[in-house]
Amino acid sequence: MSDTITSSDTLDHHEPHAKGLGRWLFTTNHKDIGTLYLIFSFVMLFIGGGMAFVIRAELFQPGLQFIQPEFFNQMTTMHGLIMVFGVVMPAFVGLANWMVPLMIGAPDMALPRMNNWSFWIMPFAFTMLLSSLFMDGGGPNFGWTFYAPLSTTYAPPSTTFFIFGVHLMGLSSIMGAINIITTVLNMRAPGMTLMKMPMFVWTWLITAFLLIAVMPVLAGCVTMMLMDIHFGTSFFNAAGGGDPVMFQHVFWFFGHPEVYIMILPAFGVVSQIIPAFARKKLFGYHSMVYATASIAILSFIVWAHHMFTVGLPAAAELFFMYSTMLIAVPTGVKVFNWVSTMFKGSMTFEAPMLFSVAFVVLFTIGGLSGLMLSIAPADFQYHDTYFVVAHFHYVLVPGAIFGIIAATYFWIPKWSGYMYNEGLAKVHFWLSFIGLNLTFFPMHFLGLAGMPRRIPDYALQFADFNMITSLGAFLFGTTQLLFLYIVIQCARGKGEPAPQKPWEGAEGLEWTVPSPAPLHTFEQPPKVD
Ligand code: HEM
Ligand SMILES: [Cu+2]
């Protein structure tokens, strides 16, 4: 090699890229793969949302109207599985793919071929999972938590496909996480020290470690199920000397960190957006980083707060009660910092900010109901009622989902090169805000009054609140069609061309590249001071 390599040589090496289907199938470009993840997540949102429609239509009135209890159980199971593994997680990975390299000044992800693979596993996994609904005996019907022995001794034959699907999703998540950690640790631009990284990058780095730690536990859990079903073991079978309660320990050792996997990147998004629209620096950046890390570490020692009623020793009840309450401290630090960032800022309320402010307020409601649930003796009353359903929907819908929507409005000018329609986006916000509170707030009352979760029929005294809840759900669901329309308009280039930095107060390397971001950015690393 005698010639010097110029930057245009390296450019030629990549370009021209494949066109049509080939471009998407074989792409190793972080932006293309980010787009694929986001589209996949959007499609799954409407499939999982359709299932929620079926559930709420059945629960609109007491009595059985439309579907049989067996099918109802499949709907609640699939709704949960799809929303968790098919919507929230892929959307976050999509955002990471698009934004992490742009935010740290890297030309791409560190492991681009693995990146392609980790995406393309997902459509196969979910096609298989969904196809189980059409198999003999129906699809999985044991809830998204798939407690044994419901998911082993009494499970439908399609459970084997469910297990394979979970293995594939886990593989995809682990590869995605390895990619993000490698990228963040090795490919930052000169001068971009860890403590200068944008909060979104920090939250994703910590989330990726959580993923690597707990996805193998989930894989072990479903593998033990597989052994119990087909190979005569008795991990979870009391008759053979096993223990169904051990299933719950293993599942929640994965499951609780998993709920933080679904919220930490949203914390990151909001920590980018609030400073931009308050036109102030993020208040308490360092404490934000440490709070995120504390939440992640604590999330490993609280899992049995999902199991207060299985008959734990009193000492264990107390340990898990207090460790759970401890999480409120770093969470409180974060909320305090967001509010302090807004304090005396010169704020404007474009769509990303509206969704972020709603995030702070409504996520806090979910945090407070979580605190109520963490009181072990009180949880004996709330456990397995609609109060739990209210709690986790308040952290997941105005939490994770609003975080994803806010991120989309914030960064879509950079992705597409066009501004979204602000007027329509405001309508989208207010209808979503009203719809989701109508849907999930009455669930608190239903739960306190004793309505159990996961039932297709209920006692008459629950009728009024259920009707309100169903109407709210229909409003929230149909409103997301408006979101789809707004996003498609942008993607098709209908709208104002976006400037390089559409948000006056925004900071960061992603705003130093043109809109739309060209396929290759930062081939020469930027200098960060
Ligand atoms: C502020 C901190 C939080 C506390 C103290 C807390 C506490 C709890 C407790 C004690 C339960 C079990 C209730 C029961 O089954 O009887 C629970 C359930 C749940 N929480 Fe939280 N939580 C918090 C934040 C979150 C976050 C941030 C998420 C997700 C983004 C989340 C998602 C869930 C889910 C999905 C369930 C129900 C799982 C199921 O049984 O299907 N929680 N929470
Ligand atoms: Cu938990």
TrEMBL record:
Q: Which Pfam families match?
A: COX1
Q: Where are the transmembrane segments?
A: 36-57, 77-96, 117-135, 161-187, 199-227, 259-277, 289-308, 320-339, 351-372, 392-412, 424-445, 465-488
Which catalysed reactions does the entry list for this protein? 4 Fe(II)-[cytochrome c] + O2 + 8 H(+)(in) = 4 Fe(III)-[cytochrome c] + 2 H2O + 4 H(+)(out)
Enzyme Commission number, as recorded: 7.1.1.9
Return one GO MF term. cytochrome-c oxidase activity
- Which pathway does this chain act in? Energy metabolism; oxidative phosphorylation
User: How is this protein positioned relative to the membrane?
Assistant: Multi-pass membrane protein
Recorded hits in Gene3D superfamilies, A to Z, give: Cytochrome c oxidase-like, subunit I domain (1.20.210.10)
Gene Ontology biological-process annotations: aerobic respiration; electron transport coupled proton transport; respiratory electron transport chain
Family indicated by similarity: Belongs to the heme-copper respiratory oxidase family.
- This protein's name: Cytochrome c oxidase subunit 1
| Native organism | Litoribrevibacter albus
Q: Which gene encodes it?
A: coxA
